[in-house]
Amino acid sequence: MNPMTIIVTVVSATLVYSAPLIFTAIGGTFSERSGIVNVGLEGIMVMGAFSSIVFNLFMAKDFGQLTPWLGLLVGGLVGLIFSLIHAVATINWQTDHIISGTVLNLMAPALAIYLTKLIFDGKGQTNFIDPQLATASIPFLAKIPIIGQIFFTNTSIAAYLGILVAVLSWWILKYTRFGLRLRSVGEHPEAADSVGISVYRYRYYGVLISGFLGGVGGAIMAESITSNFSGSTIAGQGFMSLAAMIFGKWNPIGAMGAAIFFGFAQSLAIIGKYIPVISKIPNFWFTLAPYLITIIVLVAFVGKSRAPAADGITFVKSH
Amino acid sequence: MRIKKIRIGGIMIPLVSVFLGLLVGAVIMMLSHFNPIQNYINLFVGALGSPNAIGEVLRAATPLMLTALGFSVANSAGFFNVGLAGQALAGWLASVWFALTFSHLPGIILLPGSIIIGALAGAFWSGIAGFLRAYFGASEVITTIMLNYISLYGTNAIVKGSMVKSDADSTPLIPAQARLRTPFLEQLTQNSTFHWGIIISILMVLLVWFLMKKTTLGFEIRAVGMNEDASRYAGMSSKKTIISAMLISGALAGLGGAMEGLGNFQNIFVNTVLPDIGFDGMSVSLLATGNPIGIIFSALLFGILKIGGLNISINSTTPSEIVNIVIASVIFFVGANYIIRYWGAKMKLTRKNKVGDA
């Protein structure tokens, strides 16, 4: 392969693998900024992946090329509904956030495969979808010399959508009234409550947004990478997103940056064998890379990075 | 991320949680047009209906007791050890590796050696997370999750790379003198996979109970778990305690893995996913509310659900995943014990009022 082809391949694979992580990590950011720890992102992604694949298999004949994009919405909505369990448990029922999140992770694969077996006559995995989430060139930008070819030709639209969502989320959290209120209930719920902000309601918003974006993330994973649903469709991406959120210091732009970096690390495992020097390194190291890098970065650069002050602490409104 | 300590008392919460979990399973089965009563009967018959079934239940409960104990020790110190699966896998690999490498040794050295090396491997793996938490403040929830995956892909690479012949996916069986399974126990239970590991598990339950309740280290672990700052002020080294708790936790999880290697499978193979005993052990511990004796009973219950669950799918078209849905629901209600207490208190109140009216 010539250098140009290698660069193009690396960039496009990185974007494809980071798209699910970007959405899910931003989702996690909303939840934790409102004060609810969400280790259940993995389970939410499973539900998003499952529902979008089922939708795609049944509706492709009606919606054609539009199906995968509608599938993302379906995945997001199912993720949102599923995250309600976490919201009710942590916000109203004072459940430990980690236990409740773990329940989502235990429940989702069991429920999704149970339903898969019901729908597909006892088979533990679905058929492959057609059409998949397509790649496309971005008008105008693709015409820029060199850069256009590397970044904007036949590229993952979902990843660029994720980048857009990240910028939008950053703006929402930083400048809008909604964002300020959401952050205030995650930093100092008592103070927020005393000025009349409904802590419960804003925490619901936080968790439900994480459910929607996590569901979209899972749907992107299934519709652009695995193309079907089985027990191994979501294999750690939810946890990677959680790590991306922490690297990004609970900031949507930071979370997006970390997610792209993880996408790069994951894509190396796939394309490493085509790159001259790197192809000599056993593939096993690339498989390990995202996890090793996560630990190293966590220790070396993030250290005691500060979570929102009331993250993980149940708020009980006093009467 | 901050982890709140879980405080639940009494046996009512686990019992009500199990009941509600079974109820959720029943509702889901009814909604999908299956007969929950018949399925639950099949489940209990499949788990307790024959000596073979009982042997399988006991075998399934054996590693769960160990991983659950591991979780509860770390949890007492305020750590959420999500890495049990990876630690168990490390223990499984190390014990089988030792048994295969030193296969000429007599059983009296080989078997204990394999068990101990399994525990050490688990301790080493969790020790990394303990060390990073103690000295760098790195969240153990994230590091243990990452270490899980490193363990999964790492053990697979070692198994594939140096332990199997040609392109097989599993190692040869370990020598007979390193096995925990014996013809005696197999005959006793109509050729089930029941093995001596259950004795080790129960001994460990007693040992951990003693450690946590009667020794200084146990006291320090609990003190750090309740209030890290206060215990440091009282002159305890929280760094040392954190690392000790994680080492013990990982050693127990590693032992659980060794039970799979030396008792259940008697070899190791390329795993596509992390072993179930990790997250199941965590669930067992949560259900037992961390109480060591409670862990014996909750591990047995999980053994019954897991083994009996297979029988559901044999006798009907109900997918066996229903059992995992039940388990997740049980843990949900254990976590949401506040609402169970709230309802309980309300019911008591209404009853009192009714008595008052009469």
Automatic annotation (TrEMBL), chain A:
Gene Ontology molecular function: any one: transmembrane transporter activity
PANTHER family associated with the record: GUANOSINE ABC TRANSPORTER PERMEASE PROTEIN NUPQ, SUGAR ABC TRANSPORTER INTEGRAL MEMBRANE PROTEIN-RELATED
Top-level taxonomic group: Bacteria
Entry membrane topology: Multi-pass membrane protein
Organism: Xylocopilactobacillus apicola
Localization, UniProt: Cell membrane
Main location: membrane
Protein name (record): ABC transporter permease
Any matching Pfam family: BPD_transp_2
Transmembrane segments: 34-58, 70-91, 97-120, 132-151, 157-173, 204-222, 284-303
A GO cellular component entry from the record: plasma membrane
Keywords linked to the UniProt accession: Cell membrane, Membrane, Transmembrane, Transmembrane helix
From TrEMBL, chain B:
Pfam families (alphabetical): BPD_transp_2
GO CC entries: plasma membrane
InterPro entries xref list: ABC_transp_permease
UniProt keyword annotation of Cell membrane present: yes
TM ranges: 12-34, 79-99, 105-125, 193-212, 242-262, 295-316, 322-344
Topology in membrane: Multi-pass membrane protein
Domain of life, source organism: Bacteria
Compartments reported by the entry: Cell membrane
Keywords carried by this UniProt record: Cell membrane, Membrane, Transmembrane, Transmembrane helix
Entry keyword Membrane: yes
Gene Ontology molecular function terms on file: transmembrane transporter activity
UniProt name for this protein: ABC transporter permease
Organism: Xylocopilactobacillus apicola
